[in-house]
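I'd like us to work through together how a protein chain folds, taking it slowly. We need material for that, and I hope you will provide a protein of your own picking. Go ahead whenever you are ready, and we will take it from there:
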Amino acid sequence: MQVPDVGPVVARSIRQFFDEAHNRQVVHDLVAAGVNWRKTEPAPRPSAPAKSFVLTGTLAGMTRDAARAAIEAKGHKVVGSVSKKTDFVVAGEDAGSKLERAKALGVQVLDEKQFTELLQNL
């Protein structure tokens, strides 16, 4: 449960998976056949608490995947829905109900320019 976004339900599912001998054997056979998992360094943890972002609409200068990667590279997270716990909503062209929800909840809304400036300072 120390992995970001892994709570008790997912942790229990992972544990149940590896409790089954058949599943452990499949993993063992894959490793024996030469399959390996690339080892990566953990993402740096920000000194301040992680901020949560919601992406909505189309960004002109980057794909949504690129925006997500940039946010996560800074140690923050992207969530799928707006709540009062959301720190920022990044609104591109044709932003819809997520933008309206952010406004209703008083969540800070960023356009693409504000978003890229904020990313540089996170």
Summary: Residues 8-19 form the longest helix (12 residues).
